Amino acid sequence: MRRSIDTNDPVPDEFAQVAIELLRGTVPDDASFSLSAVHHLPRRRPRTVARAVAVGVTTLMIAAGVAALLRPDDQLSIARAVGVDIDASGQRLNALGSPGTVLFSDGTLLTLQQGASSEITRRRERGADLELHGGELDVAVAAGRSAGWTIESGPFRVVVAGTRFSVGWQPRERIFEVRTREGAIEVTGPTLTQPRIVRAGEQVRIVLADPGAHAASAEEAPGTPTSMPPQLAPAPRGRVSTPLQPSFAQAVARGDYRLAVATAEASGIDRVLAAASASELSALADAARYVGSYSLAKRVLTKQRSRFPGSQSACEAAFHLGRLAEDAGGDHVAAVLWYDRYLHEAPTGRFASESLGRKVVALARAGRNGAAVDTARAYLERFPSGAYARVARQTLADATASP
Amino acid sequence: MTSPPLVVLQGGPGVNEAEAPSERTVRAAMDGVAAAQREIWQRFAPMAARMIRRTLGPGVDPEDLTQEVFAQVFRDLRRLREPTAIRSFIGSVTMNQLKMELRRRKLRSIVGLTSSGEMPDAAVRPVADDLAGIAVSRLLKIVDRFGSTDRLLFMLRYLEGLSVAETAVFLRVSEKTVKRRAAYVLERLSRLMRRDPVLEDYVVAQVRGGE
User: Fold this and answer.
1) In this predicted complex, what is the ipTM?
2) Taking the CB of residue A268, how many other CB atoms lie within 10 A of it?
3) Are the Cβ atoms of B193 and A387 closer than 8 angstroms?
4) Pairing assessment for the beta strands A164-170 and A117-123 based on DSSP bridges
C-alpha cells in the first residue's frame, strides 16, 4: 500500500476502513486481466447502435468537410514535425532550441538546424518552394521525386535535381553555402552567370559583401579586388569535414528512427560499429529494432558486447539479443541461452525479472517442459508478484495436470 | 479480420507499471512505433483495467474501456511534454474515460434503458453467498450514489492507495480539493453505512472480532 500521510489528510473511521478493505479485496492489486494484445492501436468498438450511427454520421460530415478543403489543391502536406514551430497557416517553420525535422507527404525530410527559419511559399503535389530566411537546412528529397523542390536562400535559388544536400544562408553576413552529399543540385544567383550544378561531395560558399555584390560574379571576375568580392569555393570531392547531417544518436533522440538507421548506413555500418560509443550503439540498436531491421539490431548488439565487455550495456545487449532471437526468428533455444547469459552477468539487473520470466515462456515453447517447470519455480521464488508470476504458476499447474 | 490474441496481463502497484518505460520507449510510442506502444500497453493496461474494475465493480469486463483508454492515450500521446510523466498521463486519460462511462451509465438509468432501473452491470456482479459478499454488494450500491469525481477520488485514494498529490494529478484537481472531497466522501460513506443495518452489523462484528 503506497498511501502517504498528508497534513489535514482525512483518516477513515472504522466504518470507512472496513468498506475500503472489503472493496479492495474484490479486485486485488495483483489481479490478472485477459486483454487483447495491442498491435498498432487498440481497436475501438461502438458501444451502442445509436453511438455507431452518430459516429458514422459525424465521420461522414468530417470527411466531407476535409474533402471540400482538400479538393481545390491536392498538395504536399506536412506528415510529421519534431522540434519545429509551425505557425497557424502551416507555412512558416522555425527550429526550436535544437535541430528539428519536418517530414513531408512526399517523403522529403527537412532538418532545420538550430536557429533556422524557413517558409513554404508554394506547395505542389510533389514538392514545394521554400524560402530560407536564415540558418542552415538539411534536405533529403525522396528518391525519384525531386523535380518539385526549390529553395530560395537570400538572392540565391537552389533547384533540386538530386537527393541529399544542406543549404545555409546567413542574412547578416550575406553568406550563402551549399553542400551536396548525394546526387546534384542546381544553384542560380546574382554572382553566377549561369546555373551551377553542385554534385555529390562538392561545396559552394559565396560571400556577398553588400547588396551591390548581387551584380558581381566570382566566375566572371575571380579574385577581383573590389569592395564586394564574391567568393566561390568549390570544395574537393569528399572533403566536407563538418557533418551537417545530425548523428544517428541525435536522430534517435528526436524520434527519427528511420533517419537514424539511414544515417548510420550512409556513414558506413562498419565504421559506426567501430567508432560509436556504447550509448550510441544502444540507441542505434533500439532504432534498428523499432524499424524492424533485426539483422542490423543483432549486429549492433553483438558489437556492443564485444567492444564493451563487462559493461552494463553489454549485459543488457544479451537480454535484447534474447528478445531478438524470439521476436525476429522464433529461435527459443537461442533466446534461452541469451537470457541465461544476461542472468549470469547481471543477476540483479533491471531485466532480471523479465529475463527469467521470458525464459520460462521460451523453454515451454521450445518443448523443454521440465526445464520450464524448474525455471518457473525459480521465478516464483524470486519474484512471487512479478509480471510473469501468473505464467509461471500456470506452467507449474500444467505440469501437475499432465501425466 | 482475425481477433488479436488474448494475453494475460498481471497488474498491481509495484509490478508492471512500477517498472517505468525508458524515455526513449515513450518517445518512440509518441512517434507511433508499434513495438514501443505495445510495451506501454503491457506495462500500464493492467493498471487501467484494475482501476476500471475498482470503479465500476468487480464483475465488469474492463476490456472495452481499457481499449478506449489506450486508443486515446496513443492518439494524444504527442501532447505529453515530459515522457517521465507517462503514468500520470495514462492515469488522467483513464479517469476521463471512467467519468464519461459513469455519466453514460447514469443517463441510461435515467432514461430507463434498463427496466429495473438498476444498471445492467450490477447484474454481473458476483453472487453474494456469504456475509462479506452481501456487504460488498450493499457497499457497491452506496458507492453508486456518489458523483463521478467523488467515486474516482475514493477509488484512487483509498482502493489504489495513491498519495494526495498523485490523486490530484490523475483527477486534474488541486491537492486541497482532494483533501476536502476525501473528507466529504469518507463522512458520507460512513453515514450511509451506519444507516444500513446489514452493513452496521457487519462492521460491528468485524470490529469486535478484531478486539
Assistant:
1) 0.82
2) 11
3) no
4) unpaired
Angle between helices B164-171 and B175-195 (to 10 degrees): 100
Q: Does A279 touch chain B (CB under 8 A)?
A: no
Does the global pTM surpass 0.90?
no
Decide if A34 and B139 are in contact by the 8 Å CB cutoff. no
Q: Which residue of B has its CA nearest to A292?
A: B35
Question: Is B99 within 8 Å of B149 (Cβ atoms)?
Answer: yes
Closest approach of B88 to chain A, Cα-based (Å): 15
Per-residue model confidence as pLDDT tens for chain B (211 residues) = 344 444 445 444 433 444 567 888 888 888 888 888 888 888 888 889 999 999 988 778 888 889 889 988 988 888 888 888 899 999 999 999 999 988 888 777 666 554 334 444 443 344 344 677 888 888 988 998 899 999 999 999 999 888 899 999 999 899 999 999 999 999 999 999 988 888 888 888 877 765 4
CA A352, CA B43: separation in Å to the nearest integer? 16
Three cell numbers at A45?
468498438
CA distance B22 to chain A (A): 11
Strands (E), A161-268: 164-170, 175-182, 184-188, 196-199, 203-207
A49 close contact with B: CB closer than 8 A:
no
Nearest to B15 among A9, A36, A385 (CB): A385
